[in-house]
Amino acid sequence: MTSSPAISPTGNIYIGSRDCNLYALRPDGTLLWSYKTGDSILSSPVIGPEGTIYIGSSDYKLYALSPEGRHLWEYDTHSPISPSPCLSPDGTIFLGTNVGLLFAFSPNGGLKWSKRYGRDIYSSFSSPTAGPKGGVYIGSENGRLYGFTHGGEVVLRIQTGKAIQCSIALGPDGTLYFGSYDKNFYAVGPDGNLKWSYKTGGWIESSPALGAGGSVYFGAAELDEGGQRVGRLYALSHEGQLVWSFRTEDWIESSPAIGPDGAIYFGANDHYVYAIGSPQGKN
Fold it and tell me: Domain count of the chain?
């Protein structure tokens, strides 16, 4: 499974699988239902305010399913879908595709607009992030971060050195946080001006998590002095200063999650799941 789970207010768990199915599980882990699409599901589901589940599939389609697993509607994007959809406060569903097209749908499946943001040379995997006033942000394989209005107008272009494959984290003051394959992590103001950047030892595919006091956590894929693959979880202050880092024995491509007690959870390609619980980054 590449898909990450989504959990409903009732505790039901929804997750996609490479076997082409979206699974709905009860809180005790028993199967509630499954829905089969036409190809593997790499995208992660998102749950709407009415309980509707939205999921993209490699069969090129975005699906909308009821909480009971009933098919509501589908839309053929004519591209494999690895990015995950997101929802704006007004219920608009935003979806990026592997070929660099961004779609906006109404809750009933009607297409509002679609815009190209990538070059369709390499696949784009960044998932959109809904912003204030109904806007949306997304990264691209062409090395740019794009900001769109609710109506689909491009209002922000930020160039980095290489592809942006992570999703953007949005701070409470509108600051955009994201990493790039150019090995840099960026904090950019809502006006598009760079606040700061931090140079890591490797490319960044991990999407950032924002903690208390404006701290930022993300993983990187690096090589050690002997050329061996290692991962590193970084903790930066809101001013872009290194607070601590934690090394793993293979790349970190997953995105960290922060628990209610402040612990940071993440997985690495060394087959371990980690919980970092102290300010010094000890597990």
Answer: 2
